[in-house]
Amino acid sequence: MSVLSEFELIERYFRHHGQSRRDVQLAQGDDCAVVKTTPGTEIAVTTDTMVAGVHFDDKVPARALGHKLVAVNLSDLAAMGAEPAWLSLAITLPKADHTWLSEFSAGMHELAGYYHCQLIGGDTTRGPLTLTLTAQGLLPEGQTLVRHGAKPGDWIFVSGTLGDAAAALAAQRDDLEISSAGQKKLEERLFYPTPRVSLGQALRGMATSCIDVSDGLAADLQHILKRSEVGGRLFLTQLPYSDTLNTLSLEQKRHYALHGGDDYELCFTIPEEMRGSLETALTHSGVDITCIGQIDRQPGLRFFDGDNEVTASGLGYQHFGMATL
């Protein structure tokens, strides 16, 4: 196959994939993309970078990388209650590997198309493999979900199940013994996370605070507590696990659920008076949620095993520190 120029590479892999939003006036091909918004609409913006050798290795399929790059950004939008709209990709490649690019772009376009968001621009350069995506989403004015609104008495909820991605990484590093079938199921959660976009939008007007669980439940929940200037009790017996994680010991699955990263579930707080509305709003969402604790006034996050307060050591993923995974 002949060597492609930068513009030919963009044309082949990152344009014209059957999705066209009416609010996109100009996409790739000019110096800037141009979009339009409607009155009473705000724009949420997030950026995430994945670096080879830091965030992923050659065990990760190219299609999974494309999927995950979109998913982690849409998860941030979901945590704000935003509707995904536009994506911009900055990709640095050591070489133009056409097989890799075909799979990577397919993973991107598949998930972006599902959530009706369009790739409208970006940049392509040569160098160590680095993937950066900026996602923009739309919000009704004044309805943004934030981290700083939790109040004493609010209930703490989490979507889905926790710990699978961290357990998958541990199995890949031979730090966890599990069947090949079990490891495959765990890796599916690691490689192909599901951003909780519809849940985030359903929480607008109900949740007092929200965050996506990317660095571990214990670490991310503490961001809410710190920003809201409150404390919280976490009920360890109510942590939600997948069937695969339930094959592990109690100590193992609690560790992965509390301190593992890459879950991309939503953790949010709901006032007592909104619990009934929450159940009604999520009746047809297809997303399971679990009440795992309660906000109070005592500073910090405290862990309870039944009626007994216990300690829980470890931290979530830290970009410039030691991780426990």
Automatic annotation (TrEMBL):
The entry's Mg(2+) 4-binding residues are 31, 46, 76
Say which enzyme class the record assigns. Answer: transferase
Q: Where does substrate bind?
A: 55, 262, 317
| Record Pfam families | AIRS, AIRS_C
Its pathway, per UniProt, is: Cofactor biosynthesis; thiamine diphosphate biosynthesis; thiamine diphosphate from thiamine phosphate: step 1/1
Q: Where does Mg(2+) 5 bind?
A: 215
One biological process GO term for this chain? thiamine diphosphate biosynthetic process
Reply yes or no: does the keyword Phosphoprotein apply.
Answer: no
Ranges for the PurM-like N-terminal domain?
A: 29-138
Family from the record: Belongs to the thiamine-monophosphate kinase family.
Protein's recorded name: Thiamine-monophosphate kinase
Q: What is the lineage of its organism?
A: Bacteria, Pseudomonadati, Pseudomonadota, Gammaproteobacteria, Alteromonadales
- Which gene does this sequence derive from? thiL
